[in-house]
Amino acid sequence: MSIVKHTPRPIERETVASATTRALRDMILSGEIAEGEQLRQDALAAAHGVSRIPLREALRQLEAEGLVSFYPHRGAVVSTLSLAEIEELFEIRALIEPDLLRRAIRKLTKEDLDRAGEILDIARDSFRSKDVGRWGELNWKFHSTLYASANRPRSMAVIEKLNISIDRYLRIQLLLTHGTAQAIDDHRAILAACRKRDGALAAKLLKRHILEAGRNLVRCLQQERAIAAAKKQQT
Question: Is the pLDDT of residue 24 over 50?
Fold first, then answer.
């Protein structure tokens, strides 16, 4: 009987890299690290108490998620999306997500629907307490709970990345425009249509929700960036 020897995996390093990725992602999504800001690896490694190897792995993962870009002579920089890019991302979402929901709606179980309802209750509480850090996470959990039964893993991977890319901007919009009530109402209406197994209505409501959120976000960011540019000119 032969003994199969397994090559040890660097579990500890992977754990450190994963934790570093999560910490940096949270800092970027919360705005603690601003868009366009250079990510100095030595300083970040020291601040997080890690070596440069897991830090580089974390930055590459964040690059894959669209949150970090690498440039010659500058290194890693927090990605900045133009208004046109943000608008495009929402338009892509509006194409893919309603289709996923239509495919999933007949397969959704009572447990799926109840879980989505529970997530909305938690989201409502987080909105009321202004727990900004959870908004993007809960938004994705709600949507992905409704889409998962479509069994389209590649589509899910695409829209998860899109949601991560726009998360920080959505938080800004919800904070500045107080749009949380509308978001909750939209989600409740989508869930109600899912409970009725009305795929056409659910998809219509979802598409409208995504496109309106995109328009509101672009309008909000346009104003904020104009104000920031004017202040920069004055200094």
Answer: yes
Q: What gap in Å lies between CA 23 and CA 57, rounded to an integer? A: 13
* Sign of the Cα pseudo-torsion (157, 160, 166, 167, in order): negative
Of the listed ranges 42-46, 95-99, 156-160, the least confidently predicted one is 42-46
CATH of 83-234, one of 1.10.600.10, 1.10.760.10, 1.20.120.530, 1.20.1640.10: 1.20.120.530
What six digits make up the tokens of 44?
Answer: 């970040």
From 226, 208, 228, 227, select the one nearest 216 (Cα to Cα).
208
SS3 152: coil
Average pLDDT over residues 126-145: 84
Angle at the Cα of 149 (from 146 to 151), degrees rounded to 5?
A: 125
